[in-house]
Each structure stands twice: as structure tokens, then as C-alpha cells.
Design a protein that fits this description.
This protein has helices at about 20-30, 40-45, 50-60, 75-90, 100-115, 120, 185-205, 210-235, 240-250, 265-280, 285-300, 305-310, 320-340, 345-350, 355-365, 380-390, and strands spanning about 10-15, 35-40, 60-65, 90-95, 135-140, 150-155, 160-165, 175. It is of the alpha/beta class and about 400 residues long. Helix 8 (about 210-235) runs antiparallel to helix 9 and helix 10 (about 265-280) crosses helix 11 (about 285-300). The protein binds 5,6-dihydroxy-NADP and zinc ion (ZN).
């Protein structure tokens, strides 16, 4: 087992009706004025935003609000949020929504607490030294941003999507009522399930060994999400399935399934982020579209690990040749993706990049050839190009 540092300070308030406690939770954080940040309309339509504002008023908490976050959240709205927070002397941000809203809130929080251009952090020019405190009311189980240390923002200038991580942005609390996710379109529910699975798969398919407990958690978490993703396709209002998926979403990305590993691979995420930046695809669906091509490209570097995944997660029968078992596991996962109406290649994702565009994706993903991605195999610009090509 590798050394690790597990830090999950977010208070989780989980279950039916919990959003009504938002006011008291914010007040307990000792803030004076809140920015209520939200997306493109679902929280207005469902009436959630009104309930949250009422809960704040009942708790005597002052607030201003800023909506309009879109999936693959934009830097321009982050700048708007920073200016608003400064003008209104906001000292706490409440994100009401999914990963995009939470990430936008985190970026605004960085921008208020640090001088200079907030994009510098995402462009890896310098490190943040703080962030405004944040709270979350979660409306989609997917990104795990409600407990994670990361945020991902898209800069419209060049359509570059970049992540930045620090413990400053771990939310103070996360309100999670699974009922709030029942209004999601099926595509978003299933895309979220893929993202949740992938946050553990990225950590599981790595270069480390001897993590019995972490491996056990991880295998069970992925199987649990797979089972419930299928239930939700047929029964979107099944509370227990919603609850299992929502809790898995937080545990999959709060560091738990990485304890004792080498940190994980994360190449599939880097490959997807370029697709999100250039083609504005749903994050989980984008992951499903590139995962098989990535897995086949790297599996010979860790055949036993991929074979274990095939047997313990996908229920494949073990053969003498680990590579053969590994391939069967990848096929089984692709079959699962299809069964929940998720893509297994770029065409099914709804995009058909030209070869030139694939070169551009590979150039951006490798930072102009300046970095490699992944740890199962370190992938350079040419490897990245090959994987995108195979994903077509
Ligand atoms: O904007 P609204 O109208 O709310 O619509 C959203 C959006 O269109 C809708 N939605 C959310 N909750 C709903 C709902 N519709 C009906 N009923 C509800 N209850 O769903 C759509 C997707 O929302 P979004 O927030 O974009 O989804 P998700 O949580 O999947 O977040 C994706 C973003 O998170 C980033 C991704 O890259 C992507 O930008 N990630 C963030 C991570 C992190 N911070 O730790 C890790 C992840 O790997 C990921 O990269
Ligand atoms: Zn993800």
C-alpha cells in the first residue's frame, strides 16, 4: 500500500427534505452575505431555487443570486460572479446544481480570495492561496464536486477546458436529497453514472498493488452504480436507486477509492476534457466514448490489473491469458455502456472530428507536446492522437 493523505472535510446532509435545512447550515458557517449560484433553469422550473431562498430568508441570511451556468462552465460567467461578489461584499457561495455550478462557484471563490486573473490557476501559472467558503445543494449525481478538491472551467478564448485542484475548495457542506435528481433527463442520469464509475476506475486501473480494502470498496462501488444505473433507466423515480447512485457519486471522488493507490491514471479524463472544451459534450458520455480505446491501448502494460477488473467488476470468466481476460472485460464494459444508452465511440457521442481536428485535440491535450498523460502508460501527443483516432 502506498502512503496517502485522506482529507474529506465536507459535512454531508443526506436524504429527503434536507434542502430545507440549507438556511441553518449557511448560518452555522458564520457568514454575512451569500451568493446563490445556479444553472440554466432546472432549479427554477422545479421550484428548488424558491425553496432555498425561502430557507435562507427564514434563517435571516442575506443573499444575492447569479444564474446562467452552462454545462462545461464558462470563464466569462466566473468573472461576472467575482465582480458581483466584490461589489456586494459576499463572503460565502452557495452552489445549487451539479458539477458545472459547483465548479463555477469554486472558481468564483478563488477569484474573490486571490488577486489577479483567476485563469492563472487553471493555466498552471501560479497557485491559489485561498478560496471563499462554499456550500452545495446537489441536483445531479455525477461529478463528485460536492466533496472533491477540483474544479473544471472552460475558457471561451480557444475553447480550452482545464481543471485545478486544491483543498481550499472542498465545500463546507453538501445537501444531498436524492429526490432532487428525479427530474433529470435519462441521458444526464446515465452520463452521471458513467462519470461516477470512471472516478473509481481511473483510480483502480493504476500501477500500484496490495490495496485489498480499497480494491474491495472500488469493485463494489462500480458494481453498485452499474446495477442502479440500469434500474434508473426503467424507473427514474426509484428513490433507493437514486440514493445509492448519489452517495456513490460523492464517495467515488472524495479520495476514498484512491487511498493507498498511486493516485490513479486519469488519462480518460484528460482526453474527455478536450472533447468537452471543443465540442461541448456531456462529460460522462464523453468518458464512455473514449474509455474502450484508451483501455485497449494501455492494457498490455498492466494485464493482470485489467484482468482482475474484468473478473471482479464485470463478472468475466478468467482465462489463462490475462490479456484475453482483460479484452473480455473491456467488451463487457462497452456492452454495459450501450445497455444504458451511452456511447462507446465518438460517432455514437454525436461528433465526427476530421483527422486535422484530432491532431488539434491531441495538441491541446498534450499541452503542445509539453506533457504526457496517464500512469498505466505515459501517453505523449502521438499516443493521444492514436487513441482519439481509434475512438472514431
Ligand atoms: O443548468 P441546469 O438547467 O440546472 O441543467 C443541468 C445541465 O443541463 C441539468 N440538471 C442538473 N440537475 C438537474 C438538471 N436537470 C433537471 N433536473 C435536475 N435535478 O443537467 C445538465 C448537466 O449538469 P452539470 O452540472 O453540467 O452536470 P455534472 O454534474 O455532470 O457536471 C459536469 C461538469 O463537472 C466537471 C465536468 O468536466 C463538467 O464540466 N467535473 C468536475 C469534477 C470536479 N469538480 O471534481 C470532476 C469530474 O471529473 C468532472 O470533470
Ligand atoms: Zn469525471
Amino acid at each position: 500500500m502506498e502512503n496517502f493523505n485522506y482529507y474529506a472535510p465536507t459535512r454531508v446532509v443526506f436524504g429527503k427534505g434536507t434542502e430545507l435545512r440549507t438556511g441553518e447550515l449557511v448560518r452555522e458557517c458564520g457568514c454575512r452575505k451569500v451568493l446563490v449560484h445556479y444553472g440554466s433553469g432546472s432549479v427554477k422550473k422545479s421550484g428548488l431555487l424558491d425553496r432555498i431562498c425561502e430557507a435562507l430568508e427564514n434563517a435571516g441570511v442575506e443573499y444575492v443570486s447569479l444564474g446562467g451556468v452552462v454545462p462545461n462552465p464558462r470563464l466569462s460567467l466566473v468573472y461576472e460572479g467575482i465582480a458581483l461578489c466584490k461589489k456586494e461584499s459576499v463572503d460565502f457561495i452557495l452552489a445549487v446544481g451539479g458539477g458545472s455550478v459547483i465548479d463555477s462557484a469554486k472558481a468564483i471563490g478563488y477569484g474573490v480570495a486571490n488577486e489577479g486573473d483567476v485563469w492563472d490557476f487553471y493555466a498552471r501559472k501560479r497557485k491559489a492561496e485561498g478560496c471563499l467558503p462554499l456550500g452545495v445543494v446537489l441536483t445531479i449525481a455525477a461529478a463528485g464536486s460536492e466533496m472533491s478538491d477540483s474544479s473544471v472551467i472552460t475558457n471561451e478564448e480557444g475553447w480550452i477546458k482545464r481543471g485545478y485542484s486544491s483543498n481550499y475548495v472542498r465545500p463546507k457542506f453538501a445537501v444531498m436529497n436524492p429526490e432532487l435528481t428525479m427530474t433529470l433527463p435519462a441521458y444526464q442520469t446515465e452520463s452521471g453514472c458513467v462519470d461516477i464509475m470512471m472516478h473509481t476506475m481511473e483510480r483502480y486501473l493504476n500501477q500500484a498493488d496490495n490495496m485489498e480494502l480499497t480494491d474491495g470498496f472500488s469493485e463494489h462501488l462500480i458494481r453498485t452504480v452499474m446495477r442502479n444505473a440500469k434500474i434508473l433507466l426503467e424507473h427514474p423515480r426509484d428513490y433507493d436507486a437514486r440514493a445509492e447512485v448519489m452517495w456513490a457519486g460523492s464517495l467515488s471522488h472524495n479520495g476514498l477509492t484512491g487511498c493507498g493507490t498511486d493516485g490513479g491514471d486519469w488519462a480518460s479524463h484528460q482526453l474527455e476534457h478536450e472533447l468537452g472544451g471543443m465540442y461541448d459534450v456531456a462529460h460522462g458520455a464523453g468518458l464512455a466514448a473514449v474509455w474502450g480505446s484508451w483501455a485497449r491501448y494501455v492494457m498490455d502494460a498492466r494485464p493482470e490489473r485489467f484482468a482482475r477488473f474484468a473478473v471482479r467488476v464485470m463478472g468475466v470468466e478468467e482465462t489463462k491469458d490475462p490479456l484475453e481476460t482483460a479484452e473480455k472485460g473491456i467488451e463487457a464494459m462497452e456492452e454495459f455502456y450501450r445497455s444504458i444508452e451511452m456511447p462507446t465511440n465518438l460517432k455514437e457521442l454525436g461528433i465526427e472530428p476530421t483527422e486535422e481536428e484530432i491532431r488539434e485535440l491531441a495538441r491541446k491535450c498534450s499541452f503542445d507536446g509539453g506533457r504526457t498523460i496517464g500512469c498505466v502508460k505515459k501517453l505523449d501527443q502521438e499516443d493521444i492522437y492514436q487513441i482519439y483516432m481509434q475512438a472514431r
